[in-house]
Amino acid sequence: MDSVLTALRNHFHAENRCFCQGKMTPKEGNSKSQFEIRFKRDRSETIWRVTIDGCLIRSENCEKCDYAFYRKIYNAFILVELKGNDVAKAISQLRSTINQFNQVPSISINDKWSAFVVPSRVVPKSRSDIQKEKKAFLRDFGFGLTIKNRNATLSLP
């Protein structure tokens, strides 16, 4: 396991089962929302999936997103929240997770990070409140927030 992931595990006193390599399609319960990472070309890059909610961060007293995917090549995380239709709550969970990750000394936020909200119900992306949140997210953290209804696939070069 990479030193950044080890620091994350130690900071949150998490078990090794919270970290795995392999299948990149987590699904929220029986809902229709899912997130997948695909490579456009064959790559030897290793991506780690970190189960956050209920595993890495077990506290019921704080908000947290569902998953993080770690790309060592960029020292970056892809944060994912699979949600019903409460996009504002999902964004709040992502913000909280970022703030908690920021407390881990070996983690530094950079512009290679990204965040996804994947609601299981259709949410119009053009809503002004969502557009404002996306701009605020970029301003506050220096990386983008993507909202993709039901199924989100991140294609990496």
How would you describe this structure to a colleague?
- It is a single chain.
- The two termini are 23 Å apart.
- α3 links the parallel β6 (114-119) and β7.
- The chain has a domain at 1-85 and 114-121.
- It has helices spanning 3-12, 87-101, 128-141, and strands at residues 19-21, 34-39, 47-51, 67-71, 76-83, 114-119, 145-147, 151-156.
- The mean pLDDT is 87.
- The strands form 2 sheets. It has a 6-stranded mixed beta sheet. A two-stranded parallel sheet has the order 2-8.
- The chain is an alpha/beta fold and 157 residues long.
State the helicity in percent bands. 10-25%
Question: What structural category arises from helix and sheet content?
Answer: alpha/beta
Taken from the alpha-carbon principal axes, the silhouette is globular
Biggest sheet: strand arrangement: 1-3-4-5-6-7
**Mean pLDDT across all amino acids:** 87
Q: Terminal Cα separation, in Å? A: 23 Å
Give the strand content: 25-35%
The largest pleated sheet is described as: 6 strands, mixed
Give the helices and strands as they follow along the chain.
Answer: HEEEEEHEHEE
Weakly predicted, low-confidence segments: none
Count of helical regions: 3
Radius of gyration: 15 Å
Total E-strand runs: 8
Protein topology:
Elements: H1 3-12, E1 19-21, E2 34-39, E3 47-51, E4 67-71, E5 76-83, H2 87-101, E6 114-119, H3 128-141, E7 145-147, E8 151-156
Parallel strand pairs: 2-8, 5-6, 6-7
Antiparallel strand pairs: 1-3, 3-4, 4-5
Question: What is the gist of this entry?
Answer:
This protein is of the alpha/beta class.
